[in-house]
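Q: Hi! First time doing this. I have a protein sequence and I read that you can turn it into a structure. Is that right? Here it is:
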Amino acid sequence: ADALPILRTRVPEIARLAVTQLQRGERAQPSWLREAALAGHEGIVQLLLDNQVSASASGGEHGSALQAASCKGHENVARLLLMGGADPHNGSFSDGALQSAAYRGHEGTVQLLLDYGADVNKHDWSRTPLHMAAKGGHERIVRLLLNSGANVNNSDQDGWPLREASFRGHDQVVRLLLDSGAALDALRSGMSGKASSALEFA
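A: Yes, that's right. Below is the predicted 3D structure, encoded as structure tokens:
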């Protein structure tokens, strides 16, 4: 309760509403947690967790508070949620927390999620974290995922991680994937333009 006056002066409208309603004794809502996580407000996230909002509550555009924090790279908020029992695999219909962090280049958040048991080869909407990191061109995250056991030849609805990186011209990622055993066979047929860059490094 002592934190409420301080939090009220430091948070946006959605969080002010949460604080006000909690002061009135009203029940905390999961949507408040997702909004606070998306904005990176650690204090509000902790306050809501302390008021019995489930860290794994799902719903909304980002699927869960953990995915909302992960897509923005709010590592400390993600840690609070994971410590509060958030499921590292809980997310929206299209992506999970690890996919979101990998695609946006948030290396620290990716490592955190892996430390809490996120499946490095999990498909969400047929996309793995490695696909998303390769698509985003994030070489360090691609290396981290590979070192954590990611399958370099895991295919999705759009193809392979190698195709994602090659088509978008992420040459360093292409080199890394090839060095890690990415197969060229499926890439050779039907390629044109930037997608052929992978063959140049083979």
